[in-house]
Design goal:
Layout: H1 7-26, H2 36-53, E1 60-67, E2 70-77, E3 86-92, H3 103-112, E4 116-120, H4 126-132, H5 141-151, E5 157-167, H6 170-180, E6 186-190, H7 196-200, H8 208-217, H9 219-230, H10 234-247, H11 252-259, E7 275-280, H12 289-296, E8 301-306, H13 321-343
Parallel strand pairs: 3-4, 3-5, 5-6, 6-7, 7-8
Antiparallel strand pairs: 1-2, 2-4
Helix pairs in contact: 1-2, 2-4, 3-13, 5-6, 8-9, 9-10, 10-11
Length: about 350
Amino acid sequence: MIKQPGIGIGIVVLGAIVTVYYRTAEFFLHGDPTDPRILATGRKSRECFIKAGKLLSSPFESIEIPYEGTILPGYFFRVDDSDTPRPTLILQTGFDGTAEELYSGGCAAAQRRGYNCLVFEGPGQGAVIREQNLHFRPDWENVVTPVVDYALTRPEVDPDRIALMGVSLGGYLAPRAAAYEHRIAACIANGGVFDAFEGMVSKYPEPPEAIKEYIIQNPSAFDDEMREKAKSNTELQWAMEQGMWTFGVTSPSEWMLKFANYTMKGSADKITCPTLVCDGEAESDFPGQAKKLYDALTCPKEYMLFTVEDAAEQHCQMGAMAISHQRIFDWLDKTFAEITGEQS
């Protein structure tokens, strides 16, 4: 995997570790978006990743994708130094991830299977929220279309074999993009999200529509309730702070109502490409949402459940990346082989 044995391996590993250390140090700072440590530490994390990446044996490139008068940052990983057109995976994170995390979260596995991998960050994510203050948007096709435009400028990309995979909240973002960006030949939702708001309030006894109406009618009361609960719940405190920052609002009620726009209702049936929907027996962030997305699809589709027996039952198969990547890329290999067969 690297250019130099011995010391080269140590530098790559050390660079990756320091990248994660900086990322972890910054993770809980988002309650105050003006905290200068957010920008400084985020940049240090990215700089360490880029330095370590230069020692990889496979070609590694930092990229800037034109987007609505600005750029989306990312990375392009090629299988080798040739310009041979290859199947290419566009890989993106979700609610709180960064592009750098996706190297081990799918990119390295893609390269081993003979895929180029294009990783990017969109509004609300990574350097885009930290450095440009661009917030999440539900019409994610307007984010992915410029990414596909960019991919098609590269001779290494086979235009007929471009896949899009979204991780975590990306399990909504990627299918939403695929519903309207039909140059995508295959879509992977890991894990699938049909309605993000429904997933967020799934632990409440009341139905989602009743909760939404309560928030609309009683925003101040809802804010008070959420902030009181957050005093004894670190996970909730973090989620609210992260959500308000990345969605560009100042209260929990505003954030939750923004989240209600992230639904595949009216869009799921517009996906035409083969789509893989991943789920886990112990899915905790968006329970039940993957099956709802799968059931709403009318395109060629597959539902892939990861189980306790797999040791991959958690959200996005955390802790079981090897089996996750094996099964996902087996599906993608098969799907692209069928596409090639149809074209020959």
